[in-house]
Recover the amino acids of this structure.
């Protein structure tokens, strides 16, 4: 069983949960930042539904992270390392995104805070960049952990498929 701290050597290349989660976390946060800028351009920052789409972006990012890890290792991902992979990816992605949102709302576009006043997610009548950042951090971490637990129900079993690398070996052995 692989633990989170073990690195796996595959075809001369070291595969680690940390390396994959850092890379995926920064890529997903870049996608979230781009989406935030699109929301800003189309004046959707005040829409709770538009903010909810972050969940979809995070879900897609985690699915692709698990698929990347699985393609470099084996079709079955052990449960605990898989949850750690999802949690680390979520933490990195969410922290980077929250820092961007905080600095954007505090330094670049303070008028957008008025649009968030009616959004219940951002904690009350007095909206500050810090409240928006904290609410976004809580939402992002909770969403990512839930998504990770759900996805691991599938990835721990490997979907009942063999990896592409092992299929030719099996065919050769059966011949």
């Amino acid at each position: 069983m692989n633990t989170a701290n073990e690195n796996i050597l595959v075809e001369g290349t070291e595969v680690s949960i940390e390396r994959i989660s850092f890379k995926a976390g920064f890529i997903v946060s870049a996608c979230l930042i781009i989406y935030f800028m699109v929301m800003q351009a189309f004046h959707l920052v005040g829409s709770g539904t538009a903010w909810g789409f972050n969940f979809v972006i995070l879900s897609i990012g985690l699915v692709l992270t698990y698929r990347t890890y699985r393609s470099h290792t084996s079709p079955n991902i052990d449960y605990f390392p898989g949850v750690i992979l999802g949690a680390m990816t979520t933490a990195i992605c969410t922290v980077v995104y929250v820092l961007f949102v905080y600095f954007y709302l505090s330094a670049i576009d303070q008028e957008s805070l008025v649009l968030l006043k009616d959004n219940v997610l951002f904690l009350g009548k007095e909206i500050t960049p810090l409240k928006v950042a904290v609410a976004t951090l809580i939402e992002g971490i909770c969403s990512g952990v839930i998504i990770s637990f759900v996805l691991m129900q599938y990835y721990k079993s490997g979907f009942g498929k063999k990896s592409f690398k092992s299929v030719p070996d099996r065919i050769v052995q059966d011949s």
Summary: The CA atoms of residues 71 and 164 lie 8 Å apart. The helical segments are 17-41, 48-72, 79-108, 112-115, 129-155, 167-174.
